[in-house]
Request: fold
Amino acid sequence: MTPDRECQTQAPADLIHLQEVTKIYGRGETTVRAVDCVNLRVQPGELVLILGPSGAGKTTLLSLIGGLLQPTSGTISIANTELTMLSSTALSRFRLRQVGFVFQFFQLITALTASENVEVTLRLGGYTAKEARQRAKKLLIHFGLAKRLDHLPSALSGGEKQRVAVARALALQPPLLIADEPTGSLDSHNGEEVICLLRQLIDEEQRTVLIASHDQRIRSVASRVLQCEDGRLTELTTTSRKSN
Amino acid sequence: MLLLARKNLIVHKSRFFLAIVGISCSVVLVLLLMGLYAGWRENMAAYLRHIHVDLWVGQRGAYDLFQTLSLLPTIGEQGLRNIAGVEQVSSFVGRLMTVEVRGQQRHTFIVGVDGTANGPVEIVIGRNELHDGEIVIDQVFARKENLRVNDTIMVNGETLRIVGIARGGNCFLYQYAFVSLVQAKQLFGLDGIVNYFLVRLSPGVRADDVATRIEQASPLVSVFSKEQFTANSLSLTGDNFLPILRVLEIIGLLVGIVVIGLTVSTLTTERSTEYGVLKAVGASNRTLYWTAVQQALTCGLCGWLLGVPISWGVVFAAQYFVPQFPATTSLHHAVWMLGYTVGMSLIAAIIPIRRIARIDPLLAFKG
Reply:
């Protein structure tokens, strides 16, 4: 167990490197330190689970790592790109290529079919309409949604929606997947399906996954478990489960 | 992103349809106004352009057919014939008169026809040759008053028989009617007086030179080219009517902007979270702004596509029920309206674009 303030052994090729990152909201009496002097290194292929109660700073931390927020102080480096130096346009491009997001409430575009939801990301990434359609179809079939390609989100189960969301997040093959409570809106069965999917991502694709969740089932697939409390991180477990 | 723009727009079909109807009303209004103005000018100018004349000679200070009065002695005609470059001189006698049709009083601009110089544009029924006691009326007047050839109307106590119905004489407020020159002078009480002289020039002669000679010969006259006299006569619409039409056109365009802006803004607000998600996954602001622009353009163009044929139908129906309605339809106006519609759409897109700029991508993490 390694507290966050101690220096960690410098790994040769960290995908994620946070150094003394702090995020403060408000001023004076209403100041909130959502993230407080966090140091973190994550290697490629790790699945890092961040546990913590509501309001602990998990979502803020994920937002900082995902390039959705800029820290008040400290530096964030993802895949050798220092986020704190990027403009908002550059951050958008960074998120598109380097990060895939999976949200608790799926956040699919309701007017688009399952396939079109994935195609949107691919079109943003420069694919032609035909290429996007083909790749989206391939991804969704891989995730067991062959018969749901042309269904609107309203016609999908919770598990199916989350699988579409994962397909969307992985469409451009980003090195990092960030998931905020991916099983939070799912029943037990669908939650298991998503956890299996995450396991598959680690085992077969060596993808780096960062998950914020209360779901204890995810511990079984996590390489590392961190506890987030009052904006600070504490390492709970480093398992032997790493990507091969 | 066109797919997203289109699909979000039509997800509520009834709302989209209502928006299109609203925009098409704006298109119809503006096209009607454009057509009304163009038709008015075209109709008022049709007869003046038809008259066989190179120069209009009138009393000094008079400059058009409708707003100013010109009175010249007929003896001046010989003096004009003597001026170098003048090939032919005709008389023009015309004024707005009250006529009686089946006991009802109506107004028409009666012209005394002198030879072939200033007869009607085209006879559609009956004959062009006029004798005393005869009159040719415009087809719009005929339809309005349900008159036919051989019917009679009364002018200044004189009963005149309709011998022909012509086209090209509709000035909206009144129409032209034609009688013989002698008859016109008798009706107007103009003995030895004309309103204008119509001058035809010899081939190869410059109009400006002859005009100068005429004015030098008689300081009591003003001389105008055909184009200038026509423009002067149309200035009534230009100076008084056009500003009103322009204001109404602007109101029509503003209505279109508001309808498009409200439709796309409402859509943007309803889809705020989805826009936030798109920002989170890496869509640039510019891409999302373009989505709003595409939605605005789609609304505008659909409204244009619906509004153009409706406006043509309205003009057709209006002319059937109100014969003197002078509006015209043209592809030229439709193309202008397309340009206006694109402009309306782009301006309307500013409101949703501002909303999109303020959307926080962190909305994606919320329920």
